[in-house]
Amino acid sequence: MPNSYSTYNNLPVSQLTDTNISNPANDEVLAYSNGLWVNSTAGGGIKSYTTAERDALTPTAGEVIYNTDTGTLQLYTGSVWINIATEESTFKLQALVIGGGGGGGVYEGAGGAGGYVSTVDGENSGGGSASQPFYAIANTNYNVKIGAGGTGGGTLTGTGDNGEDSLFGSITAKGGGHGANGTTSSGETGGSGGGGSNASPALGTINQGFSSGVGGGSVYKPSGGGGAGAVGVDWATGQSGNGGDGVTSSITGSATTRAGGGGSGGSDNASFSHLAGTGGAGGGGNGGYDNTGTDGTVNTGGGGGGGGLSTDGSKVFKAGDGGSGIVILRYSSAYDVSTVSGTLVISSPTAVLTDKYVEITSGEGIIKFVVA
After folding, report:
1. pLDDT recorded at residue 1
2. Is the pTM higher than 0.70?
């Protein structure tokens, strides 16, 4: 009687009673399927899914996938998907980059708001454009600069200065255009356009801000400075133009409006009496009325208000300075921001949902994201 062990020991796998093997090839493995072992190509590698495809799965705890929407490895904990941070991982970054607001002109036009660039999901950039996604890479250096607001004019011929550009990596938000003065008629182009008396408005930068309003066509009839979210208001009889409104963002978890245009100056002088314009929502400075224009709000990119003229016409008042810009970064809590060099002033990280954010309010330097 043959030895049963020896008999079965010499059988090929395909002849065992619990297999269904066909045309085996190199590097194949056995996989259990419907009560039988079958030959199958080897597994290995991590499957890729979009967020929508991932959410349609029925995963088990410990399953790992690559999310093509966020550019991250993700692990299922048994209840939620979480990102797996790696030393060189790529992740979606939500950012606001706002340039410095333009300075107002003496007795005339207001400063335009700084350019407004957003990568925040579901929100807008300036000029009515949609936000654009931005993918950051851990341990990669990113240049950052916060643009100062432009100085408001201080004499009758003082037009003020454009705001400075703000920078984060490949994103540049242009400084706002300055307002015109009482002896010239045109504001300056910029992130948003500066106000003036010219019937042709000063333009904003595409996808960052709007133009100024339309002036009355001669001196002392100024329009409002453009905002990131709206065109500056036109001159009307007896009324200098108001600043255009800014754009609202909830990047910090609270809805906040930034980058409003400045309001143009006014006077109660009998020869050309008109009321001053008010600044647009989002930090725009008010125009002066027999007094100085007010500054754009710090770290909003608001345009400076135009300067006023005294009742008897003997004195001009300084125009408002533009508000400085800002960079706000919101990112996964799996990372931290590290300063590589420079003079940047960065807030402490603040938690918001599963993310955290920092505000960079002044200076110039280099940062990088590191695994927390």
Report:
1. 42
2. yes
